[in-house]
Amino acid sequence: MTALFAVRRRCALAASALVLAMTANGCGGDDEFSLPDWEAPGQNGRVGDLMIRYAHVAEPKDEPWQSGDDVPAYVWLYNKGDKADKLVGAETPAAASVDLVDADGKVLTGGVELPVGRLVQLEPGKTHLVLRDVNRQIRGGDFMEFTMRFEKAGTTTFNIQAQVPTYEESPSPTG
């Protein structure tokens, strides 16, 4: 029985050492991103070694987006390949153009770097996409064709959805 406990103790110590070694090498750290854990809403796709997740147009606030509005769009990109890539542009027939902008809204002309094994989140408060001068009203839930161009992986076209607004519940009149 003591021999069994000794074997279990050695296995537990070996497993602990393995976990510590993986953490020290960057495996299991804060930057780790597990693809099966992606459960976010929005359009998902793939082009070459690039995973596209959570692609959507920002939800309209008080009313639908109107013709002429500049509309933010967000997407997560993950490079599963062995070489860095770059998002170089996007377009949609629903807008005059699509710009890559930084957190302050300044247009980025050089694209967005997509390092190997890293999640790049194009979202509010960070670098993201903006559909300029949309040519129609866009309500939450509406779809539109959207094309993304990458330096190495190529081009992919899919439907992107305007996120459905979430409204606060009004107080119950009987409550």
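(the above was protein one; protein two follows)
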Amino acid sequence: MTAATNIKTSNALDVSTHSLFVCKTCASVWQDGKRVGESGGQKLLRQLQDLAQDWDLQDEFPIQEVECMSACNRSCVVAFAAQDKITYLFGDLAADGSASAVLECAGQYYTKANGVLPWSERPEALKKGILAKIPPLSQ
């Protein structure tokens, strides 16, 4: 069950759009090859969607669920991405209690022309667990 009100797809014509990617498979419990119950990633996604309903940037910074971001040993995982900005991949986020820090950091990312998020300015939950800092594509 996904709240479609704040999940958008990327539009190739709108290159200024920011995206917050959230792995919904993170922190899953598996039994006999099947996921049991709600994953930590689904919990985090739901919390982000709930908080984002009152977030000033909900239309400029859509939340996009991702089936897997291949960081299973570092779950829960989110990423910030935008055209002409550094892409960040964060892991080791608590399924409960990190959503407000993720949106706060996303807001910081949004205001930075190049997307650089200095360690000292990030919320505590995103000071650790950085998995990747990917440079923007050159044109």
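Reviewer note on protein two: The chain has a mean pLDDT of 85.
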